Amino acid sequence: MSLFKRSAVSEILSHSGVVLSTLLIVWLSVLLVRLLGEAANGTIGPDVVLGLAAFSSITALPIILAVSLFIAVLTTVTRSFRESEMVVWFASGLSLKNWITPVLQCAVPVAILIAVLTLQASPWAYRQIAEYRQRFEQRSDLSKVTAGQFIESDDGARVFYADSPEKEGDELGNVIARVIDPQWLSIVTAQSARMEEQPNGDRFLVLSEGHRYDLKPGQAEFRMVDFESYGMRLESRDAGNTAETIRARAEQQIKARQTTLLFSDDNPESRSQIMWRLALPLAALNLALLAIPLGAVNPRMGRSGNILVAGLVGLLYMNLINLSRGWIRNEQLGFEIGLWLVHAIFLLIMVFMMWRKLRIKAPKPPAS
């Protein structure tokens, strides 16, 4: 490998690592804020926040990798032109097309990794996300309780509140609950509480060292019971709540469906999903090559002009892929055409831009 190729590959990989780590940090920061907000609102459990963040990062990695590669190639080529480094290489007999080989040496492995992620890892991650959320949604409202929150269940028939635990081994402390049934209005207090799951799968909230006060509305009937342990049923195991059923429902989501199943399922929605999964690695290759002519700028021009144009080109590329995906789903465009159309257009744009950059104008004859 020549000195030029070695230096180009090294710089592209270095820039890719910096951009990738930056984008991942930004992505994870935004994602964690959203997930923590959902956990605070009771939409998901606090115990699954990190798991959901990890699986969501897997689903976002293909786009992040493609964008990182595009920015890395663009900044590398732009820097070499701005610092007049390319003048030296041009004087050594090289041209802009000599960038293609080192760019492909970086882009092809990244595209293969993106293909593995989109075809295998991302559907698996989507299934895990769906299973996490379905398990939480199928739990009773009381089983979602966390310290310091009021929880309602059975359309307000049960209201529950608990403080943080004071004793080691307890999950909740200083519990108070209001229960309304057709005959009685009950108030239950306890010093602590914990969750228990029976061998048959039934889940109970077990209250310790408390009191129960029952009042019959409209009558003077009242009763009080002291208890050392009191169990409140949270949920029962049924056929729709098993791990196999939850997994089967998760796999029904189109994003979570295995790629092999999508190929065997001849419907527009499945075809559009196949198109999306195949489009990302192809887009990564195209964008990396397109960054070469986009980065070849005149050093005397502004510093941000080509970056802005490149950003608009990348956004246009991804939007056209999404548009083609929608057309395939709505049967407005054939799968075979929609799969290649956008990539072919941008490949032709790249070839045209390279031709414009490589074209050498003949000098004008001297005036006689």
UniProtKB/TrEMBL annotation:
Q: Does the keyword Cell membrane apply?
A: yes
A single GO BP: lipopolysaccharide transport
Provide the protein's localization: Cell inner membrane
Keywords attached to this Swiss-Prot or TrEMBL record, sorted alphabetically, are:
Cell inner membrane, Cell membrane, Membrane, Transmembrane, Transmembrane helix, Transport
Q: Which domain of life is it from?
A: Bacteria
Report if keyword NADP is assigned. no
According to UniProt, the name of this protein is: Lipopolysaccharide export system permease protein LptF
